[in-house]
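Support case: user asked for a sample of complex input and structure output to validate their parser. Sending the pair below.
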Amino acid sequence: DAKTTQPPSMDCAEGRAANLPCNHSTISGNEYVYWYRQIHSQGPQYIIHGLKNNETNEMASLIITEDRKSSTLILPHATLRDTAVYYCIVRLLNGSSNTGKLIFGQGTTLQVKP
Amino acid sequence: DAGVIQSPRHEVTEMGQEVTLRCKPISGHNSLFWYRQTMMRGLELLIYFNNNVPIDDSGMPEDRFSAKMPNASFSTLKIQPSEPRDSAVYFCASSPGPDTDTQYFGPGTRLTVL
């Protein structure tokens, strides 16, 4: 089972920041938070990941709370092409029987509107 | 880089027939993953290989499903005999290693079993 909780859907105006929340209250110290997205009819696409520090790359920023029980993915200037299902995933590290597994939940469907 | 290549992109077959899905991972990647996506169950990991060796096949639904990776550049997922409930989109993904490395997904094969 997925260890994350996300709202099923969100809307965002084009050009505005999209803030997608994720709860992972049972996360343990050796688990990363990963974000993927899936644009309609395509394979999932990696966005960003982090352990406890905030992270930023060319696609997005990831803000992880100090207690690590929740995080927010930020798309700073959403475009229509960012319309997709966004998955927040808690991923175990090496040495676990679940090593390598990405366990997808239902995700958040983000609709960017003009 | 061409990314992960899957073939065929679409497959329509009749119940009872054998189906073979194919995947070519990104060159240099040592881990390969097979996922299945349905509306009811979302994205599920079926099996993954590391250095051509199956590591975890606990997600394979039943004996009708089998996967092989004869070399580092090719993998197959076979369903024999196929059933209508096998209808889904099957994704292949690869990563440099199995643990915290990013997984890159192919475009998927949409399978319809009549």
